[in-house]
Q: What sequence folds into this?
């Protein structure tokens, strides 16, 4: 009987986070720190949270206000009904911006999300626009992505969300789109 010996290959896990060698395209440096931790570090260096953060934020807000002068809105804020986008919209108004809240309804909205959007836009006095997808067409597109076993079946929704935001901004002559995402809170970082 001709049996080939088993070659053991050690499973590699990043020394700082939970990412491992099962992730396609991951690379580890000589200290076994992964690509994603290096990307995070680059973002931290580019967008530090330090004593200058309030001044940098105010400079961006001032530019948005200046560029939006004379227009009904000075920015577009994407809203989903979740806490990130709700908090983003709240802060945009708190900073004195005049946002148009924009939502993409792909047919999967929960009643809670819809009510949250109504509550926050009514409370803040913000105009609200919803783009409703053709349900049969979108369902067919999502089914195709699922059957194709692609790694991210949410690509159609993600792409259309940004398409709707850009379309709304263009229609209103607005140069700025604000969305609630943080690489600090939406990525795992573990300093060991």
A:
């Amino acid at each position: 009987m001709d049996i080939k010996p088993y070659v053991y290959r050690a499973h590699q896990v990043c020394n700082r986070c939970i990412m491992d060698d099962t992730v396609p395209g991951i690379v580890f440096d000589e200290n076994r720190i992964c690509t994603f931790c290096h990307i995070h570090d680059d973002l931290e260096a580019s967008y530090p949270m330090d004593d200058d953060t309030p001044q940098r934020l105010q400079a961006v807000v001032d530019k948005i206000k200046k560029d939006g002068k004379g227009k009904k809105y000075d920015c577009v804020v994407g809203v989903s009904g979740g806490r990130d986008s709700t908090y983003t919209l709240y802060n945009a108004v708190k900073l004195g911006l005049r946002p148009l809240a924009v939502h993409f309804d792909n047919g999967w909205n929960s009643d809670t999300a819809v009510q949250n959007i109504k509550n926050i836009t009514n409370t803040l006095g913000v105009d609200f626009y919803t783009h409703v997808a053709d349900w049969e067409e979108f369902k067919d597109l999502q089914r195709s992505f699922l059957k194709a076993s692609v790694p991210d079946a949410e690509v159609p929704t993600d792409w259309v969300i940004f398409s709707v935001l850009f379309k709304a901004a263009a229609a209103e002559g607005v140069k700025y789109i604000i969305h609630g995402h943080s690489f600090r809170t939406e990525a795992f970082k573990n300093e060991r």
User: Anything to note?
Assistant: Residues 188-192 have pLDDT under 50 and may be disordered. Residues 155-172 form the longest helix (18 residues). The chain is about 45% helix and 10% strand. Strands lie at 75-78, 99-105, 128-132, 177-178.
